[in-house]
Amino acid sequence: MATPTYELIHTETVATATSSVNFTSIPTDSSCRDFIIVIDGTATSLRPVLQFNGDTGSNYSAVMLSDDSPTYSATSSGTYLDPIPGYAITSRFSATYQVLGSNSADKHKGVLMRVNQHVGDHVHMSSGRWASNAQIVSVKVLTNNGNNYGVGTIISIYKIAG
Amino acid sequence: MPIKRLSQSGLLTFAKHSSVLAGNAPFIPFTSDFELLDSRVLSSSAANITFSNLNTLAAGYKHLQIRVLSRDTRAISGTNNVLMRFNSDTGSNYRQLHIMKGDGSNGSTYAEAQSSSIIPFASPSANDTADAFTPAVIDLLDAFSSNKYTTSRTFRGTNVAAAYATQVVLASGLWMNTAALTEISFEPISASFAAKTMIALYGVKG
Question: What pTM does this model have?
């Protein structure tokens, strides 16, 4: 019998505008080698960023390539994982974060990210690293500035076995 | 097919059934359209990682996805290319890479001529930030077709503070052969994959 390999862990539809959604109890066994977060959302002025295991230290880095002219940027020692430094999403957007090695206890986590920003018509791709060997047990989807995700924003998390 | 409810089995109701399901709905085993086929996590360094017998291992699947966290043992600081080959073909039958890359301060596009491998990703090396690995996701579409060349698409990045080691890349590659895939191998261009490197192979139905 086939082993479930790509499974929804949880999905959240924002009912009241909020600046963060926390997913806890992420499996650390082989059912969750990687996980994927998908956001289909609205915003007024924000960037959708991540923190793992409640880590607010300066342990996040990322590099971005954007179609905007184009634009390049790199951040290191950030306090959250930011896929689109310097940008502000003001309307509809979608974002996908692929977190590789989530259940590993012996290496940093690699993250591949894409963001589509409908106002401004931008597409961004970026790669990030969380400088921690801890297994990921929770992920917080927050905003860079405390502004809220709009009502109806859907945030889903899927796990991939490995 | 298992009987799930005794109340419908006839054992309690004495009802007679013409089917062994005895009134129960058929039990359909879980099937997946995206399935883990093989996974390698290195406990020590290795010169290469190879997935073989794909004709049986991936039977029933149309596409393949390979998910990678890679590092190598080369005694440098900076990324080290990894070669991908199919069906043990070491001839000049590949288009090595076509890439779109951002390194934080510049962007570039690049295409390379015919070569003896595809370069889907590059790994941090021994002198780079400890425990930092390159994440990469490689898609091989219609990998078992016998009437078209095999193409690869890779999304990957590296985030360590060394020359050529902070980058996000979208890349494609081509194997100019119409044979169905039976083997995929990965090999650092020099030195070996480091311990803790992970490469997993998934099948996708289509």
Answer: 0.91
